[in-house]
Specification:
By secondary structure, the protein is α+β, with helices and mostly antiparallel strands. It is built from 6 helices and 11 strands. The chain folds into 2 domains: 105 residues, no CATH class; 78 residues, no CATH class. β2 and β3 form a beta hairpin.
Amino acid sequence: MFRNISPLFEDKKILTKSMLESLRDYPRSLFGILHQDYSDGILSGCGLSVRAEKLWVEPGILYRGRVPYLLEEPYELEVEADGKETYLKICFEDRISGSQQEEYRSRLYLDGKAPDVEREMELARFKLQPGARLRDMWTDFEDYSTEFDTINRIHVPYAAPKRSSIFPEVLKSFARELLVSPGKEPWDAAFCMNALQTERAMPYEAVETYVNLRLERQRSGYTNKEIYDSLKQILAEARGKERSPAAAGREGRKMLLI
């Protein structure tokens, strides 16, 4: 049955075991229920910034195997400028069980190897050239895929219902640029407004459905990179730089009245 138990704190009343257990279990139970169908990925926060030639990971929550991992203080890492692909990753270590608690640990680090999906998760990647400064901001939608000296978060999984989704800021940037493009379609506005007002990651299914409708496809299982490339194609088409075969077909199907 549904229920809600709230401990009552009164003067000169002894805290019972059940009251303490309620305080202990309620936040964890509520979190689990709210995110029971969420995929692995960044759930909140975990922003990146570059200060004093160091890469800082801001506080946030990662979700993996229905377990939340919290970073409560900013974490700094030394960045090496060697021009090679570098990955910012988190490695999830084995659970540690004790008599009073169990602990799920992880560690953040940089290296040149692609993440092992069995125990690691990517938080960013970049190629920093010698003498250059790593950028943590993007000027427009296309800038998110800049190869050198720029943080790339396109490939990072963001926790969302059923399947991980793409970096929310990528969708927001796409939405801002598409809304002012002359060749937008009627359903673009609905998708763009949803992307702009969503605080967390947009559900993958919503993104997949939009891309398929817009480009007249019937695909599933897009990677984040494939989503980004598809959005880039949509934006180019809307600006008139490129017309896809599907768009050309739509344009040719016009009624001529005599």
